[in-house]
Amino acid sequence: MNNRFPEGFLWGAAASGPQLEGAGSKHGKGKTVWDYWFEADPGKFYQQIGPETTSNFYNQYKEDILSMNEIGFNSFRTSISWARLLPDGTTINPEAVTFYREVFSRLRDHGVKSIVNLYHFDMPYRLHLKGGWENRETVEEFTHYAKIAFETFGDLVNTWTTFNEPIVPVEMGYLNDKHLPGVYDLKRAAHAAYFTLLAHVKAISVFRESGHCGEIGIILNLTPSYPRSDFPEDKEAAKWADLLFNRSFLDPVVLGRYPLEMAEFLELEAIDVPYKNTELDLIKDNTIDFLGVNYYQPRRVQAGDKGIGVGLDKYFKPYQWPEAKINPYRGWEIYEKGLYEISLNIRDNYRNIPWYVAENGIGVEGEEAFLDEEGEVQDDYRITFMEDHLRWLQKGMVEGSNCFGYHVWTFIDNWSWLNEYKNRYGLIRLDLKTQTRRKKKSAYWFKQVAVKNRLPEKW
Ligand code: BG6
Predict the structure, then answer these.
(1) Active site residues
(2) Burial of 278 (0-12, 13-18, 19+ CB in 10 A)
């Protein structure tokens, strides 16, 4: 491959409606769970910055799309806001249609392929009140929303994804307090996960039945699980972590069935998931065309406290590998080789499905410390991060993994769930006060790689 990527390789970035757009309560948008949560408990949000304005893409998308072009993007992923398109669940908001159609046409006219995602953690508040993903009604509402989105934008978009990281709202909302409802309840978590998967397959089925052109997939955050040691107890812990956090979605979406071990887990926890046999058939018949993989960090685990542990601690416990390289700002381990291991896992166990890196990036706090005299962020750490990951990715591709693109998280610094603008991830710096944008050093590096379609010489 000679440091080259295949012809047509996708280069770009990912973002999401709620983190980038702004206009949170304007132009007819309905309230999401994040809008509600900020109103109810602003102190929970870093520096009390809510989701109203975020990075103002709603008003600045024209200049932003020009910048994408300038930094060599041939593709860009964002999400449609469900609450903006269908504020009450049924009436289509004409302003949302105008906005998204403008964005998708402009991207097309600038040679940037849109990958459009339907759900990025942004549950409409009215559905949250009825139980969100714990309620079967939400599945029907989502299927309707997906149908409307395909019909309304299908002439401009031919690459769709249903969900971004569906396990995250389950983990963070039902085993943690970082998303709502913020409880620790394995049974509720299992129900929410199942109904999310059902919504995903129903959306795929609607897409295919109505004969839309193009492809449809999903974006999963894969966190390879590494055991502390070769002791069977540690290895078993890694198996459970992998089952719950990777395979719980990866197996059904790619292979059309849940792993057998999932039944074992549900039995051990005495959880009854209210599935129907016809739904298992839907899962079998509606596997994805392609997979998006978000990769930030691995998961390191050690044996759980069998018998005495509470919740998932019975199965595995986190383990801090002493040799780990940590991004001190986010506290996440940087383990570039994980991307190679993911690529081989997909090749060997997931029918070598076409996939792409849908998010990979580093969040850094206090980036103003890296401004040079001209006001450009000298983010060499971001360049190193991307380059090292890309080299491992390329190795996986040379060995046969079917990867078709690399998207960095993210394009312009954007708002994040409870961290807001604490950790900056963008290739472009955002001045929060003035909403002005300025390319960082990494943006110029990215352009070189994207336009030449290869990595700099080195190994
Ligand atoms: C991914 C999400 O998990 O990671 C993004 O898809 C998120 O929405 C990104 O912003 C970085 O994580 P964080 O929590 O540091 O913003």
Answers:
(1) 165, 359
(2) exposed
